[in-house]
Structure to design on (256 residues):
């Protein structure tokens, strides 16, 4: 399973999440505390929003701890909204196009989880995309497909409902043609103005999502970046969080 973190609020250096904390995302890439595997070495990525509507993007197939350029980049770049991800593959190849976050126009998306038995129905799932989005599919992961399917189903107009419909369609396919567990999801996505994070599973084992609100903004993570657990709130399974720079709203997340 993967690890990810996202920030929305006052402009801060990306290193405040990716490299500086005691349990930073780089540290989690080699020593995760709340994942099935403590090594997340199948690539990484960072997306950030600044002066343009579209996000900046930096990805590499190296383990996050092994790329010196990542440390230099996050030490220099400041942003009011950014997302970072370290990958542990559930079966697809370690390649640039399979690394998160995935971007489409002004949207960024990253995911921790799996669609059960996806390799058994990948062709049928890909056919859910219209021709334009199918042509823009670069990698082979269930995560990228989930994101593009949500875009296909109206993410721009309905960021939560489109994701619920996309998750629901893939879970139905997994139930019909895949394997257990049919769906496990801890996803984060953004249009550059808000952060959305959903936690859901078809069984009792939804991947974790924690959040923390402070005067400077809102931080979302797969697992805490420090040992001060009292400051962190756990998003419950079947919930979606919507964060702006100053507010947090939590609603039900019900795939259909």
């Amino acid at each position: 399973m993967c690890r990810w973190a996202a920030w929305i609020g006052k402009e801060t250096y990306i290193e405040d999440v990716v490299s500086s904390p005691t349990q930073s995302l780089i540290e989690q890439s080699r020593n995760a505390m709340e994942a099935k595997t403590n090594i997340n070495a199948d690539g990484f990525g960072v997306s950030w929003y600044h002066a343009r509507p579209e996000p900046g993007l930096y990805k590499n197939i190296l383990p996050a701890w092994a790329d010196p350029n990542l440390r230099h980049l996050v030490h220099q770049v400041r942003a009011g909204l950014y997302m970072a991800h370290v990958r542990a593959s559930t079966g697809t190849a370690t390649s640039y196009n399979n690394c998160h976050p995935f971007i489409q126009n002004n949207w960024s998306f990253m995911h921790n989880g799996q669609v059960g038995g996806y390799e058994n129905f990948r062709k049928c799932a890909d056919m859910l995309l219209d021709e334009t989005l199918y042509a823009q599919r670069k990698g082979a992961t269930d995560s990228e497909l989930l994101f593009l399917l949500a875009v296909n189903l109206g993410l721009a107009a309905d960021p939560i409902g489109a994701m619920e419909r996309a998750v629901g369609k893939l879970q139905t396919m997994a139930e019909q043609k895949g394997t257990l567990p049919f769906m496990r999801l801890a996803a984060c996505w953004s249009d550059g103005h808000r952060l959305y994070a959903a936690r859901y599973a078809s069984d009792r084992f939804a991947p974790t999502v924690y959040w923390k609100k402070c005067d400077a903004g809102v931080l979302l993570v797969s697992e805490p970046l420090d040992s001060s657990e009292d400051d962190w709130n756990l998003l419950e399974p079947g919930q979606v969080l919507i964060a702006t720079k100053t507010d947090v709203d939590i609603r039900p997340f019900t795939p259909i």
